[in-house]
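The passage that follows is intended for readers who have already worked through the single-chain material. We present the inputs for a multi-component assembly, then the predicted structure in tokenized form, and finally a short commentary. You are encouraged to pause after the input and sketch how you expect the pieces to fit together before reading on.
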Amino acid sequence: MENHYDVVVIGAGVVGNAIARELSKYAVSVAVLEKELDVAMGTSSRNSGVIHSGIHYKPGTLRARLNVQGNALMAGLCQDLKVKIDYIGKLTVAQDEEEVKSLYALKDQGEANGVPGLEILDPGAMEKIQPRVGGIRALHSPSTGIICPYSLTIALAENAQANGCRFYLGHEVTSIQKTGDRFDIRAGNKSFSAKVLINSAGLYSDQISRMLGITDYRIYPCRGEYLILDKRLKGTLNVLVYPAPHHGKAGLGIHLTNTVSGNILIGPSNEYREDPEDYACTADIMAQLRREGHVLLPELKTTDFIRSFSGLRAKQTPPEIGGFKDFVIESREDVKGLINLIGIESPGLTSSPAIALMVRDMVTSLLPLAPKKEFNGTRSGMTGHFYELSDEEKADLVARDPDYGEVVCRCEQITKKEVLDAIQNPLGARTINGIKYRSRAMMGRCQGGFCLPRIVQILEKEFGYRPEDYYLKNLHSPLFSGEMRPDKTRA
Amino acid sequence: MQTIERDLVIIGGGPAGLAAAVSARKNGLDDILLIERDRILGGILNQCIHDGFGLHTFKQALTGPEYAQRFIDEFTALGIDALLDTIVLSLDNNRTLTVSSKKGFIRIRARAIILAMGCRERTAGAISLPGTRPSGVYTAGAAQNFVNLQNIMIGKHVVILGSGDIGLIMARRMTLEGAKVEAVFELLPTPSGLARNVRQCLDDYGIPLFLSTSVFELHGKDRLTGVTVARVDDRFQMIPETRRLVPCDTLLLSVGLIPENELSLSAGVRLEPATSGASVDDRFMTNVPGVFSCGNVLHVHDLVDHVSEEAGLVGWCAVRYLEGEPSPEKAFIPVVPKADIRYVLPQTISGKEDVTISLRVTRPMRNAAVLVTDQGRKVARKKLVRLHPAEMIRIKVKAKDIETAEKLEVSVQC
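Having made your guess, compare it with the prediction:
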């Protein structure tokens, strides 16, 4: 049988891809099944992009352990995969004595979890880290970092594929049967078979469980909306600034988050939804985020809002209960060979490298895992951005490859070469959003008004695209309705 | 890394850059370099294939490309240097630029610079449009590029938000190409585009224009399936009971233009909040010595004829600067918008030369006069039958009337 694998991973989010890459170090065949046309299409591309320190979780929980371990592993992983990460640190700010007490409690909890470098700062020390931060005391966690979450997810997938892992994008799992010691899986009108099945389907992990008769879990999608601010404001925020935990508040609250690309995010909100793909933004919350943004960032102008987006957390608790439940990462006894990952919400991004190790250990007891000599954990080629280089480096690069000289996206200064790479790299983009996530073109203040027409020209010229070949995110989202009139000059 | 030196560098080869270059050459300047990011000169005019350009300048109705070609022909005949397919990536306060193209990444030092980068369109993100993020939402100018330059039909069932001129033009264009244009919705109580465009692009094709009405939600997870529209009250708040769903597969946005001043800002150019363009004196020089600004990057115009005229003047001002003609004394006279005036330009003048003040009013008025005063003393007055925010007004002021002025105030007298 053609689609016969040792391990099948369901879901190409950051967790599924981290697991696939980890397993690609061993002599086993691995496939990843993903219903969308690209990786990182769910929660992995729709979050704050924060690498948490691990102060917020109860000692002894999986969340606490995997967070701290994942945080420590992330630096090396990002170096290998050439993904930008910046450990900028975080201030959790108390406004009154009551909140100062909660800072000390957080510090104790963080230290019990093994979080390094925690310090309570007085206003003078706070001011040095972040001018005009306000508040009377702050907890400084220097190991908090920021990362581009979809860049990491894409990099993990590319490296996993380079090491032999197969990605089946646009393959939605529709049924799973356990036959003997194998799983028979139908996905995208193909049959797959696996000895070990890993359910990292995120918002759909409960539905995948149910396909195997496991009814223990239910996911409650919880939506967070964000606004993205213009890069003009880069530099107004040196560190992450969060409010101190407040009695009766479950989430971490609306705050500002720097991104590695220089934008600032405002958000997230917190609202339960029925539909695991309800990525709408709402008038009320957008207005609330704008108001809070003006309070948190006095320099903010109305023209600084460039885009909104929302993401959904895979929560295990219904709205009437709220709060957090610990991650479920289990090798099922009743369905032997199934490794189930349920409710991997925050800090899932931070924990992903640690989760991958934990799952690998579970796989070891199901399959012999022999290390593969030919494994290469580093990504080749230029993976950074042209705009990040010095003038001299830019000049050298353009001299070597003229496609770097042609700047396609004027706001983000993304070159034609970077757009071509987005398509030609392993697991190349098949949608406009895929090009956007890989190259950053269309992510700036004009939102593709200038560069989308140019990118369409490039795709037509270099790859023979016709007007009906362009999709925004999936096969149901065509960009155009066709040619205006027959063009005999078009190839 | 290669560094070259030029007397005058013009950034942008649209109508403003072309007219500035032609004028600078005709005023005797040899060393001019124009930098254009597109493969051809002409800027946004290349995709404006409708007519109506040049009525003031050439007394005939030309298409955008025809209008541009007249300047391109002159530019070429004068043998002015241009770098095409080349983008300016940075500009500092010493008039040093870095530019990039297939041919290389180089540094250019200029003795004078004319900013002529034009403007960009406001987006759905910029107006915080709630709802889903489907395909089928385009700014009107991007849609115009696909339809007019790339033979691509963007959709069949269209709603247009905003009554800016490009939106009105695209309503007609999409109708001519066989799409059903449901309506144009405008948040303001008056159209944002020129009256003639409302008549010729909407009325003539039976496309309804709903004023004080806006789009409040996008629908459709994949491709757009419809928009929720509603009327607004006089504080622009939605009137909930007027909400209705308008099915469509395409939404075009014509909700405003923003001067593209990122390079200007990096050079330390001070911007005016009212125009989002540079603050300039009556020689169109910004606060950065030797850096001039003209066209839509200075303030958004409604007629290209005015862009060309303004840029021609700026080309001459740059030559005078390069020839070392002393700038008028520092004692500049501020020009200040007062009653019913949204902005005035230039923002400061010398009082030593005749000057044309450009301005826009805040609301539509009839049979009123624009008045320029200096401490209550009338300096200039222009009577108009029709005053509209969509139409720029220009008023001439004579040097002899402002030699001793301290502050000019511009207002509407009803």
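Commentary: The mean pLDDT of chain A is 94. Residues 62-81 of chain A form the longest helix (20 residues). How closely did your sketch match?
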